[in-house]
Amino acid sequence: MQYSERILKAAPVVERLRDFIQHGDYTSGDRLPAERHLTGRLDMSRTELRKALDTLEREGLIWRHVGKGTFVADPDEDTAPDSLVQLGRNLTPFRMMRARLVIEPALAREAAINASGRDLSNMQRAMDRARSATTWAEYEEQDDRLHRHIAEASDNLLLVSLFEHLNHVRRAVVWGSVVRATNRPAASHTSFAEHDAIVQAIASRFPDAANDAMRTHLRSVSDRLFGEA
User: Structural domain boundaries of the chain?
Assistant: First the structure.
């Protein structure tokens, strides 16, 4: 659906940005245009735009990843409290990865005990879509879905809530610029085999193996980001 630019520019800056997203055929996971494009398109200053983005992030309509861009949030996700967003902005990427190493292997262990057939199907679907992704953004969306499905397979609402809090904080962490040598993950991207190992251990009902496979995967990610586990 097309929106009226004349009406849009007459609206307050937050509503202007909200209307642009809601009527611009954007769906969950889509990346918004760069700030320099939005300021010109919406006739607002960079300061006004950033304040509007802050407001919509608090409302849960968008989420931002420094170095990657601004993305439309999943409407089914809970809105992140301001305290979690602020925590993420004050947390280093290294400490974020250490937190994941503490929490996510335990979630994989629980998933190996409690996963349903539907959980396993969801995991496989996310892995298949990750392998066929044509951009890094598409891959990362499916990677995020896979880890979420693993948490949900724990069949423990408290653990799922803990994962959601962890994920909200992860999204707010300032990772810096991530330089990609390719437009999409190569077929040899190490995370593919690591994800396979995690899900295979969960499907085989091997809690210790699932725990270890998740730890191996997160250490591999940490190695690529920081050169150390």
Answer: 5-72, 82-226
- How far, rounded to the nearest angstrom, does the alpha carbon of residue 218 sit from its chain's CA centroid? 15
Class of the domain covering 5-72 = mainly alpha
Q: What are phi and psi of 157, to 5 degrees?
A: -60, -35
Per-10-residue mean pLDDT, the chain, length 229: 43 81 80 90 89 79 72 62 66 87 97 96 95 90 92 91 84 62 88 98 98 97 74
Q: Which residue has the tokens 């931002």?
A: 64
Domain 82-226, architecture per CATH: Up-down Bundle (1.20)
| Partners of residue 70 on adjacent β-strands | 64
DSSP assignment of the chain: ----HHHHHHS-HHHHHHHHHHTTT--TTPBPPPHHHHHHHTT--HHHHHHHHHHHHHHTSEEEETTTEEEEPPTTSPPPPHHHHHHHHTS-HHHHHHHHHHHHHHHHHHHHHH--HHHHHHHHHHHHHHHT-SSHHHHHHHHHHHHHHHHHTT--HHHHHHHHHHHHHHHHS-------SSSS--TT-HHHHHHHHHHHHHHTT-HHHHHHHHHHHHHHHHHHHHS--
The tokens of 201 are what? 């251990």
